[in-house]
Every structure is written in structure tokens, then in C-alpha cells.
Write a structure and sequence with these properties.
The protein is an alpha/beta fold. The protein is built from eight helices and ten strands. It has one domain: P-loop containing nucleotide triphosphate hydrolases (Rossmann fold), CATH 3.40.50. The site of adenosine-5'-triphosphate has 10 residues, from helix 1. Keywords: Amino-acid transport, ATP-binding, Nucleotide-binding, Transport.
Length: about 230
């Protein structure tokens, strides 16, 4: 379980996240919604330690991580797939996967076989450079790399951005299966409502740095999307 308690985040004097609190249990997939610029990525970055929380606390399974550095939170089991994927394009698919396991207590050979069961497409491209894969394949590689660390929670920032619909649907299926089999909670920032509805159990909506609505995924109405999500 991840608990975010009263977290505020600023860039210098400019505050972007205001006193956000929420919990996610191990059997949940949570979707974070909201218009561009409301602070979703900033909130995620404070959870993984790339930005300091000005107030509040973040804990993973009752273990406070608020003061830990990003690599320390990663070792504790917080895995992050950033917006824009950020695989290493000059490295091969295999090398990217090896990097994912680096500095984590996992048996690479065993783990990679397990990960290939979720991402079979990667097995055909192991020796190719990451940068030559299609956008959808790169996103699958980015997620696979994050999962190589055997995380306790997986956090993704707009995983469907710029990806064709059939791959988007595959990614929702893969994440759903992984979550069910590994009991790993998932937090996703997402604009694609179809994907959000397919994957999510619960939603949070942010506006101007605060959480303004939340509920079970089937409680997300057109009213919510008109009020808080359409441009
Ligand atoms: N490095 C930074 N320095 C100063 N301000 C920033 C920085 N990064 C983001 N911001 C500002 O913080 C606010 C929230 O940005 P953030 O990226 O968290 O929003 P978001 O909800 O994730 O939007 P998007 O969906 O466009 O990614 C915006 O006003 C943005 O301009």
C-alpha cells in the first residue's frame, strides 16, 4: 500500500501541488486524471523522489520514504515509467532490460523469462537498439524495464501518449494481468479515457494542484469529463 498524506510541492516560489492525500491498496489500479498543467506529473515526481515534498509524508507499506533519494525509493520498490518512455535508444533491448534489474535484488535470467511472458514481442527484438523499435514497442520495453526490478508499486505517466489504439489495448491487458498475478498496485496518469476505464478500478481528478473528485471507475461521468478534463 502507498499512502500520500498532505503532500505539497513547489518549483521555487511557485506552488503546484496543494495538500494532496490519497491511498492505494495492493489490489487497486488508480487513474489520476485532469487537464494539462494541473500538477499530475509533479505529484508523481514527488512520490518517486525527483521533487521534494514541501509538506506531508509518503509511505510505502507503512515505511516512510519522504526523505529518501530516488534511487533509494526505487530500491524500496517504487518503479516509474516516465512520460515519453525514456528508454535508452542506443542500447539494445536486452541491455535496457538488464539496466532495469541493475542494483535490484533480482535474478536477471529468471526475471527476464517471467517478463517475456507479459511482453512476448520483445523476444523478437533483443539484439536491436531500443531506438529503432516502434513507439508501441518502446513503451512496452519501458514498462518491461520497470518491472525487471520486481517492484512493489508501478507508477506510469501517460503510457498511451502517441501510441496506436491496438497497442494501447494490449498495454491495458498486460498491466491488468500483471496486477492480478503479482498483486502490485498501479498508479497511472492518463488522458485517454477509454484506456483509463479499461484499466482503472478507481480514479482521482486533479485541478489546480488539488484533488477535486474521486470515486470508483464506473462512477466517472460525462459531467466529470466535461468539467475537469475537456480542453
Ligand atoms: N521544472 C519546472 N519548473 C517550474 N514549473 C514547472 C516545472 N515543471 C512543471 N511546471 C509547472 O507546474 C505546473 C504543473 O505541471 P505538471 O507537469 O505537473 O502538470 P500535468 O498535470 O502533469 O500536465 P501534463 O498533462 O501537461 O503533463 C504547470 O503549470 C507547469 O508549467
Amino acid at each position: 500500500m502507498l499512502k500520500v498524506d498532505d503532500v505539497s510541492v513547489s518549483y521555487g516560489k511557485s506552488q503546484v501541488v496543494y495538500n494532496v492525500s490519497f491511498e492505494i491498496k495492493d489490489d487497486e489500479k488508480l487513474i489520476l486524471l485532469g487537464r494539462n498543467g494541473v500538477g499530475k506529473t509533479t505529484l508523481l515526481k514527488s512520490i518517486i523522489g525527483l521533487l521534494p515534498a514541501k509538506t506531508g509524508d509518503i509511505s510505502l507499506n507503512s515505511d516512510k520514504v519522504t526523505k529518501l533519494k530516488p534511487y533509494e525509493r526505487s530500491r524500496k520498490g517504487i518503479a516509474y515509467v516516465p512520460q515519453g518512455r525514456e528508454i535508452i535508444p542506443q542500447l539494445t533491448v536486452q541491455e535496457n532490460l538488464e539496466l532495469g534489474a541493475l542494483a535490484h535484488k533480482v535474478d536477471y535470467a529468471k526475471k527476464v523469462e517471467e517478463i517475456f511472458e507479459y511482453f512476448p514481442v520483445l523476444t523478437q527484438h533483443l539484439k536491436r537498439k531500443g531506438g529503432v523499435l516502434s513507439g508501441g514497442q518502446q513503451q512496452q520495453l519501458a514498462i518491461a524495464r520497470a518491472l525487471m526490478s520486481d517492484p512493489k508499486i508501478l507508477i506510469l505517466d501517460e503510457p498511451t501518449e502517441g501510441i496506436q489504439p491496438n497497442i494501447v489495448s494490449d498495454i491495458a491487458d498486460i498491466l491488468t494481468r500483471y496486477h492480478k498475478e503479482k498483486k502490485v498496485p498501479i498508479i497511472v496518469v492518463e488522458q485517454n479515457l477509454r484506456f483509463a476505464r479499461k484499466l482503472g478500478d478507481r480514479f482521482l481528478i486533479m485541478q489546480k494542484g488539488s484533488i477535486v473528485a474521486q470515486g470508483q471507475m464506473d462512477e466517472l461521468t460525462d459531467e466529470h469529463s466535461k468539467k475537469y478534463m475537456s480542453v
